[in-house]
Design brief:
mainly alpha, 2 domains
Length: about 180
């Protein structure tokens, strides 16, 4: 096993826990907000927005029962990942489970309209998509994957430092546009 196993374990468990919280939120809130008698029904959204602009499994069956089933399936998959079973079963199984969670949550977000338009949903989907390709727990991280966070952190620090050190340049740049 690699020296990255603790980081990987913590990252996967944390993301599975966040998915669990997100799917529990969907279990409790999606139907009252976006169900057939909700504030912004998905059926109206689907009628107005084409699939290619906002892909979702709910275009196939826009019913409250489908929303509930998908949310509970997401809860179940999150709990399975928290047990670590997919990671012990191999890269393909782990990828399929992470892919199913990603696809289910993407379906909620893409028809969620105002209620699912916050930044944390996008970040969850980005990290979930990344883990589809992370492999099993025994998969060695590539050199690029190990060096990527360092480069991202450095570029983020530089850009924030420049913004705080020279705010007049940022304001001037905004005025020109």
């Amino acid at each position: 096993m690699t020296s990255y196993w603790i980081s990987r374990l913590v990252f996967e468990k944390a993301l599975a826990l966040i998915y669990l919280v997100a799917f529990i939120g969907a279990v409790n809130q999606f139907v009252p907000l976006l169900g057939s008698h909700g504030l912004l029904p998905v059926a109206r959204f689907i009628a107005a927005v084409p699939f290619r602009d906002s892909p979702s499994l709910f275009y196939l069956f826009p019913k409250d029962s489908a929303y509930r089933a998908a949310a509970w399936a997401g809860v179940a998959l999150s709990l399975v990942v928290l047990t670590g079973l997919p990671q012990r079963s191999g890269a393909i199984v782990a990828g399929v489970v992470w892919g199913l969670m990603w696809m289910l949550y993407l379906s909620f977000v893409n028809v969620g309209q105002t209620f699912y338009g916050f930044g944390w949903e996008s970040l969850l989907l980005e990290m979930g998509f990344f883990l589809i390709f992370a492999g099993a727990r025994s998969t060695e991280p590539s050199l690029r994957a190990r060096q990527a966070p360092r480069g991202v952190a450095r570029s983020g620090v530089r850009s924030e430092a420049a913004t705080y050190a020279e705010p007049h340049r940022v304001v001037r740049g905004l005025r020109r546009e």
